[in-house]
Amino acid sequence: MPDKIHTKYLLSEDEMPRAWYNILPDLPRPLPPVLHPATRRPVGPDDLAPLFPMALIMQEVSQERYIEIPGPVREVYAQWRPSPLFRARRLEKALDTPARIYYKYEGVSPVGSHKPNTAVAQVYYNKLEGTRKISTETGAGQWGSSLAMAGAFFGVEIEVFMVKVSYQQKPYRRLMMETFGATVHASPTNLTDAGRAILAQDPNSPGSLGIAISEAVEVAVKNPDVKYSLGSVLNHVLLHQTIIGEEALLQMQKADDYPDVVIGCVGGGSNMAGLVLPFVRERLSKGLPTRFLAAEPTACPSMTKGIYAYDFGDTVGMTPLVKMHTLGHDFMPPGIHAGGLRYHGMAPIMSLLHEDGIIEAQAYHQNSVFDAAVQFARAEGIVPAPESAHAIRAAINEALEAREAGQERVILFNLSGHGHFDMAAYEAYFAGRLEDYDYPAEAVLEAQQRMPQVDESALA
Ligand SMILES: *Cc1c(COP(=O)(O)O)cnc(C)c1O
Asked: Which of 342, 349, 341 has the alpha carbon at shortest distance from 325?
């Protein structure tokens, strides 16, 4: 490999990819069907119409390999895309590793994460189909901020159910959403049946992503001109994020290099999917040995400890059933600081790729994740989001392994966002107040008893 002094690989606006990559036709086997929550039979487009605009429903099941990015979406993307790819030269030096470490930086978007890649697209398609308002949930607030920004751009009202602990811990994310004109509630609320039911059981419920989803879905189902939007997990969300990986492929070409291992942190799976799915396509079509590694918290280990089963996307059981790695829809996550990774399930596409051995997974404790975050910040100057720091932990471990083995290794990871709104988490880490927590395997087995029972042999 020629020794280059380059540290960043940029694409011009004209080089921005014109299409998203849809992996559905290239999966090793078809995704199991999505099931209706009541009948437990496969859903059709009309079943989903109360929730999503038809364009997104069609993308959810499309068999077209490439889907053109509409002009108005490209125009918004161009404000921060193509995002930079960096070579982490100072981090490599600090680790004294023969590995070459690259990272794709999604923190350059106006709200500081990858999430606007899909928020902009979703609001655009909603606007085209006449949606007046979109309801959604948010955990740490990154998704709500992204949708609120996109709503402001396209003139669609945004109503956000924000998990109560985050609402209290992260007032600045809430204010950011309000600055964009969105309405934000601390979930559970007494505005919905789902929220009232939870509050009746536990008036001090800290909320969860699953509960907030139940509330947002209910608002959409009960109002014909309101649709619902999800910031991760679904096929169309992963599709919109593939612009990350399509850009990274071109940028690795400019670097005259190719990754041995591609890493992402996983909450619902969208930022990792965005980076890796185009590389999965290359591996499958060219027989490459590329590895893919999902980094998750030990406190919410849906891939490493969850089971691959049909489950609800929300807590109350209003959403369709999807087959995924899940900790159980009534999972109550411990209050770890990577709020964006506290979801009980995993994207069906990523679950299938994990089940089929294409994607590996590793879980990490909070303190070791923050060790990595601080080491990265001191070397590279970017304070990472606690979510993204899981990917950094995994990347540093890979680089240290390469050092031990005396091997070259090319590592690419997604730096999904910056941590400028997460300094309270850093404060807790510096003060030694972060607890390492292992989610007990028994709890998953218990939750399994409460999962919807589906006779899969009857579906064929
Ligand atoms: C939301 C979020 C995540 C986790 O969600 P995925 O769908 O798994 O990508 C990771 N990083 C950041 C910065 C986020 O905002």
From this structure: 349
Query: What are the phi and psi torsion angles at 427 (to 5°)?
Result: -60, -45
Place 307 in a pLDDT band, splitting at 50, 70 and 90: very high
Nearest ligand 1 atom to alpha carbon 113: 13
Residues 88 and 9: beta-carbon distance below 8 Å? no
> Residue 3: how many CB atoms within 10 A of its CB?
4
Residues 19-51 pLDDT 10s = 999 999 999 999 999 999 999 999 999 999 999
Helix (H, G, I), strand (E, B) or coil at 232: coil
Query: What residue ranges do the domains of the chain occupy?
Result: 4-16+81-112+242-459, 21-67+115-235
- Number of CB atoms found within 10 A of residue 297's CB: 29
| Average pLDDT for 192-215 | 93
Question: What would the DSSP string read from start to end of 359-402?
Answer: SEEEEE-HHHHHHHHHHHHHHHS--B-HHHHHHHHHHHHHHHHH
- In 3D space, the residue among 83, 262, 109 whose CA is nearest the CA of residue 176 turns out to be 109
* Distance, CA of 211 to CA of 231 (rounded, Å): 15
Give me the CATH code for the 4-16+81-112+242-459 domain, please.
3.40.50.1100
Q: Check if 417 has its Cβ closer than 6 Å to any atom of ligand 1.
A: yes
Q: How many CB atoms lie within 10 A of CB 36?
A: 15
Tens of pLDDT, residues 377-412: 999 999 999 999 999 999 999 999 999 999 999 999
Fold identical between 4-16+81-112+242-459 and 21-67+115-235?
Answer: yes
CA 395/CA 364 separation, integer angstroms: 12
- Residue with the nearest Cα to atom 3 of ligand 1? 340
**What's the pTM?**
0.96
Q: Which CATH architecture has domain 21-67+115-235?
A: 3-Layer(aba) Sandwich (3.40)
User: CB–CB of 103/413 below 8 Å?
Assistant: yes
Beta bridge partners of 297: 364
- The residue whose C-alpha atom lies closest to atom 9 belonging to ligand 1 is 271
